[in-house]
Design a protein that fits this description.
Elements (H helix, E strand, L loop, with lengths): L3 E11 L6 E11 L3 E5 L6 H9 L6 E6 L2 E2 L7 E4 L11 H11 L3 H4 L4 H14 L15 H13 L5 E5 L7 H18 L2 E5 L3 H7 L2 E5 L6 E6 L14 H19 L1
Parallel strand pairs: 3-8, 3-9, 6-7, 7-8
Antiparallel strand pairs: 1-2, 1-4, 4-5, 9-10
Helix pairs in contact: 2-4, 2-5, 7-8
């Protein structure tokens, strides 16, 4: 597709010759600023798909194209956040958020001379997620939800065009998880980066995404695609609506069929 920002074309990926394909014959197109979610059983290749999009893995077969170019190595336009915040314990909140600007070009080359400017960018992100005043705290002084907010800020500080989220809220309690859904929603509405979210939470996928893809058991294939035709901006109250619940149940039926297969 000519307007695709990310295009995955008939991709297989095998980590080695013994275990076989992790994903198989996967094709999809993402427009710029689109928010997609990948759901499916454990081990189905959702995280593998993210590695392909970021350039951390190359396909065994097929092509991954980002911004019109075939991906041949790690991309600088990518930000990533994971289930565990993986903050460096010896760095403050501000120091953790600034880390990508110290190591990713072109920011690394100008980091010393522009450190004050970059620090203000990091502080602005922290304010946007409700962490104003926590810049000098260390990770052990923060709750799990706060740590994950720092992780998301770190993923966004270098203003990536593509944000990859691998179950970023899975380890949090339900109330904190919903709070972070709303923070991510607001950041996306403001910045409009392209997002791939991997999650097991069908409510999370439905609340956040424009499109949800359901993957099969290993080797992972895309079995279903569901456009989420719920108007934005979405408030948490919509999760109790008949339409929202109907979409979640439809996705659950797909997962149920996969488990029985």
């Amino acid at each position: 597709m000519s307007d695709a920002f990310v295009e995955v074309d008939k991709v297989d990926l095998a980590y080695d010759e013994v275990s076989g394909n992790a994903i198989e014959d996967v094709s999809l197109s993402m427009k710029e600023r689109e928010f997609i979610a990948m759901v499916g059983p454990s081990g189905c290749g959702k995280s593998t798909f993210m590695k392909l999009c970021s350039g951390l893995r190359r396909p065994s077969k097929g092509q991954v194209i980002v911004e019109g170019r075939e991906v041949s190595g790690p991309l600088k336009i990518v930000g990533m956040a994971f289930q565990n915040a993986t903050l460096l314990p010896w760095r403050t909140t501000l120091g953790n958020v600034l880390l990508p600007l110290e190591i990713v070009q072109p920011y690394r080359a100008s980091f010393k001379e522009k450190k004050a400017e970059y620090a203000e960018r990091a502080r602005a992100l922290l304010r946007s997620v409700g962490l104003d005043g926590y810049e000098n705290r260390f990770p052990w002084e923060l709750s799990g939800g706060m740590q994950q907010r720092v992780s998301i800020c770190r993923a966004l500080v270098h203003e990536p065009k593509l944000l990859l989220l691998d179950e970023p809220f899975a380890a949090l309690d339900a109330f904190t998880r919903e709070e972070l859904w709303c923070i991510l929603r607001d950041l996306w509405m403001l910045k409009r980066f392209t997002v791939v979210l991997v999650t097991h939470d069908l409510r999370e996928a439905t609340f956040l995404a424009d499109t949800v893809y359901v993957m099969s058991k290993r080797p992972g294939r895309i079995l279903a695609r569901r456009d989420i035709d719920i108007p934005r901006p979405r408030e948490l109250e919509v999760t109790y609506s008949d339409k929202f619940v109907g979409i979640v149940l439809e996705l659950r039926e797909h997962i149920g069929r996969i488990r029985k297969a």
